[in-house]
Amino acid sequence: MKLLLTDSGVRNESIRAALVDLLGKPIAEADALCIPTAGYGGPYGDPGGPWHFVSGRSPSPMTGLGWRSVGVLELTALPGIDRERWVSWVRAADALLVNGGDALYLCHWMRESGLAGLFPSLRDTVYVGLSAGSIALTPRVGEFFVGWEPPAGDDGALGVVDFSVFPHVGSPDCPENTMAAAERWAAGMAGPAYAIDAQTAIKVTDGGVEVVSEGNWKLFD
Known about the structure:
Radius of gyration: 16 Å
C-alpha cells in the first residue's frame, strides 16, 4: 500500500497534493471506502463520531473531499459477510479512509476481520489514516494512547511501518498532547517516532518516508 498518515485528515493544500500524487489521478476520479470502526472503541467512543466521519461533516476532511464514490466498510460486520464479496470491494477501491478513535480497538478488528492480512497484496491502494487510523499501522501505540485493552493485553499495533506516531500536538481539543509529552512518550518507544499536528501528514511509499507539513512536527530518533 501507499500510505498517507494524517493527524486530522486532509487539512491543507500540501496534504491534498500528496494524496493526489499517491492516487495518480484527481480525487474526483477515485473511489474510496471509509472505515469508521475506530470511532466506536475506547472510553470516548460514541455513535456521533462515526456518523460525522461517514457523512463528511467531520472537521477532519476525509470523505467529503470530492471522491467519485464513497462506500462504508465496517470491520465488525466483515466476519459475517462472504469473504470474496468484501475482498472484491476492497480491491476495487482506490483509497481506504480510516477514521480516528481508539487505535488498539481498530487494530483488533483489522486482524479479526481479515483486512490486515490483505494489506501486503494491496500494492496500488492508498491508505489514508486519521489519528488512530494512522497509529494503527505503527509497531506500538505506547501507554499514552492505550484506552481500549485488547485480549492480548499489550500495546502492539500492526507494524506496517517501522516508526511510531504521536498526533494532535498543540491541539486545543487535546491539551495533554504537548511536544514535551510527545518527547516523554518517544523515550519509551523503540525506533524513530514522529510527533505531528493537524497541518502535518506522513507520506510513505516504496521510495521512503516524507513529512508533508504546513505546521509543526518533530522526529525523535
